[in-house]
Amino acid sequence: MVFNIQRFSIHDGPGIRTTVFLKGCPLQCLWCSNPESQSNSAEISHSDLLCRKCGRCVAACETKAVSLTGDVLSIDRDRCGACGKCVETCPNDALGIYGKEMSVEEVFQEVERDRGFYLNSGGGVTVSGGEALAQPGFVAELFMRCRDEGIHTCLDTSGHASAAAWRDVLPLTDLVLFDLKHMDSLAHERTTGASNEKILDSLNLVVESGKPLIIRIPIVPGINDGPENVEAIARHVAGLKTVRKVNLMPYHRFGEGKYAMLGRSYSLAGLEPPGEVRLEGICSVFRSAGLECEVVN
């Protein structure tokens, strides 16, 4: 289940890359900017700004999941099967669908088109999410296909995955981008819906494999940017022999509107992104620990 294939990515590993985004994630991070990635099923989105309330989608919906009361259009998401008929009939592009079932070969045909860019830039294919390791069989087959064709493979992961999933995918992975959010397990559970034990176990597994590793840290004001957590992450990462660098990924609000389009509320509404001074101060903590660190926007 794929929700996006993004070409010419330059922040998801070395060189020019194609990033394949898979749906489904075991975490529910409060700051998630891709809420459409969380469910492992296809979902209908609705933009009230573009909607003219013409009612064509209501007539097209065979499950009666779409209703129009006055000038309020509603989607019963428990009833909706995301068949896409409402999307097809909408004249104003107010409705969309996140998620499409694709075979390994279909995805490979898409990413293979940019092989020349990969070879000339040292790039390749990155699989992200959601959580890429929620679909480990698919990722392993895609990476095997890429490896057979000499295309560099990169896994972008939260680390919250089973040892079996890692066994399938890690041998076929050239580089791992690994998120670390909070070293305090209780704080991690409060803000992501799960503790960090499985994530730290996964991190150890990646280090033991010898695979090159880039640590990526979302910097969310008031949640994980305090000195205690930053210093704890720096101490932990400094002891990992395969870490190439640390990337700070500052919180942003670009995904806030997607929550309303999916009929959800956004719990961090109004939160301001961290400023440059704060980000540079956090970078300095990692550099003092002997780590290369940069901000990736």
Low-confidence stretches: none
- Strand order, largest beta sheet: 1-2-7-8-9-10-11-12
CATH class of the largest domain: Alpha Beta
How many beta strands in the DSSP annotation? 12
The second-level CATH architecture of the largest domain is: Alpha-Beta Barrel
Largest sheet: 8 strands, mixed
Distance between the termini: 26 Å
Rg, alpha carbons: 20 Å
The third-level CATH topology of the largest domain is TIM Barrel
Q: How many structural domains can be distinguished in the coordinates?
A: 2
Q: What's the pLDDT, averaged over the residues? A: 97
Keywords:
297 residues; alpha/beta; TIM Barrel; Alpha-Beta Plaits; 2 domains; two-stranded antiparallel sheet; 11 helices; 12 strands
Set out the fold topology.
Layout: E1 2-9, E2 17-22, E3 43-46, H1 56-60, E4 66-69, E5 72-75, H2 85-89, E6 95-98, H3 104-112, H4 115-121, E7 124-128, H5 136-148, E8 152-157, H6 163-169, E9 175-179, H7 185-192, H8 197-209, E10 213-219, H9 227-238, E11 243-250, H10 256-261, H11 276-288, E12 293-295
Parallel strand pairs: 2-7, 7-8, 8-9, 9-10, 10-11, 11-12
Antiparallel strand pairs: 1-2, 3-6, 4-5
